[in-house]
Amino acid sequence: MFLQKILSYSCVLIIILCALTSCDKTPQKSEIDRAEHVMEIDEDPGKSIKILQNIDFDSIKSEKQRARYGYLYARSIHKLNECMDSDLYIKQTVEYYQKKGDSPELMKALFYYSNYYYEKDLSSEAIKLIMKAYQLAIKYNDDYWRGKTAELIADILANNYNNHEAIKYTIESAKYYSKAGREDNARYCYVDLAIAYNNIHDYNKSIELIDSIRTIAIAENDSDLIVYCYSTEYKAHIGNEDFDKGENELNKFFSMSKFMAPTSYDYIYKAMILTHKNEYDSAEVILNQLSPLRMTNSENKFRYVALRNFYKKKKDFEKALVATDSIFTINNKDVGKTFSQVIVATQRDYIDDNLTLANLRAKHQRAFIIASLIISTIIIIFIVLIFRYRIKVKRVESEKIIEQIMAVSNELSSENMRLTAAVKEHKQQISDMEDRLEEHNKNSVNTETLFQEKWEMLNFLCNEYFEKGDTPKTRATIVSRIENELKRFQSHESMVDLENAVNKYMNGVASRLREQCDFLNESAILFVILCMAGLSQRAVCLLLDLSYNYYYTKKQRIATRIEQSAVPDRELFLSYLK
């Protein structure tokens, strides 16, 4: 009967747990799957966007599906060469994958999130995200995404006038696109590299590079790449003050405008060529037709540069001065915006860090409460069952005891005296045991202290090595002593002996560390054991072949991982890492 009740209660608990952890497929998930299929198989980002826009995002309850939605939305928008209006979806995607740890999915989400900030001209936010994505691409040895992330890094740097660094990342992008078999992407990177050379006024190198890429584009009849080459090379010729060649290349570019629409920059360059040819009326018409309200700050500033040069050539220095003032005004706005971005970014980092920490704590608390409730329920049920069973047993035992008491009631007086003497003796024994236990604890502390002092010689040699190792007269002797000591301690057998000694003299603390902290690798376990043994920082560095500067970083990382865990002896382990 008792076992049947236990089995029944256990089945009820299992059913409850299954109900809590089960999940059903939803219509939203099916639609997201369809959008992903259209994006991956049909390569139709426009259709994928339409499917996603028909889904009510707020009705998606699963964090995983919300993350998939945000990723597919950002990727489809990027494929269509459009800009996202908000970071609502992609931000949740990044936050979800960040909680899961490093992954290729996080790398891709970070790329699209960074691209959003880049398109919004928020370079300080964009560079932090794309650098993380770039490091993940290196970590996962993904050539295509390493090229893709390096390309966006170069764009952000070039947009912030850091052209020399942009050149380095553009070269790396082209290299890894080629390694991934994406030669088309690599060629566009080389044109971007030519643009970067234009920005640092190395026009001859730019022209040479563009000529080689255009030759390949013409051979393969790649009209998009050809027109991109024309749009870049004419600027290099104008930078070299070869206006005739520049005009020839610009005319070719305009003739292929169906492949690439001219921008305000192209018309401004056209006006500069006309100014050089003294065709002032035509140049002035172009510059006046360009409305400042429809141009970016960068385009507007370039327009005022062209106007300043136009008026200087016409000897109208008053208007040239007005144009110069306009250039300074735009530059001041750009500088103010840059400083504002830094402050806002710092503030946002602070708020985001606090919010992330609060969410993490809340999640841990929820998990702890749920686990505690489940475990408590199980424990209470078993306690109640066991208690009821013991009451029945006690009842039978009580009846027997009453009978025995009635039989020995005549002997209570003498038995009471004997019991009193026995209690007094028992108290004395307890007092003696407490004294011995206190003495044993003192001896344990002394033993641990003596054990840790065992390494004073090794600590002294290591300290002497760092402090006097460069002295010519003593170096040979010190190095010899240290090398002999290190060879003895660095062997696997010595490390095992050391760990056994730590266990023996320190109440098995090394074994407890290995059992409870299985999330630490062997290097981290040995690091903590050496700290337990009382070895100095330098001794630990030499035995584990660590740089002295990396010692504190490694110790902090290990301490953080232990602190974030829920192992029983966490505080004891952390005490050796302080």
Structural notes for this entry:
The protein is built from 26 helices and no strands. Helix content is 82%, strand content 0%. Helix 12 (223-239) packs antiparallel against helix 13 (243-255), helix 13 (243-255) packs antiparallel against helix 14 (264-276) and helix 19 runs antiparallel to helix 20 (472-490). By secondary structure, the chain is mostly helical.
Task: Briefly say what this structure is.
This protein is an all-alpha fold and 578 residues long. The protein is built from 26 helices and no strands. The chain is elongated.
Gyration radius (Cα, Å) is: 38 Å
- Poorly predicted segments: 18-24, 339-348, 440-447
Q: What is the string of helix and strand elements? A: HHHHHHHHHHHHHHHHHHHHHHHHHH
The amount of beta strand, in percent, is under 5%
Helical residues, percent: over 70%
The biggest beta sheet, please? none
Secondary structure tally: strands: 0
Count of individual helical segments: 26
- The class by helix and strand makeup works out as mainly alpha
Distance N terminus to C terminus?
Answer: 55 Å
Shape: elongated
Mean pLDDT: 80
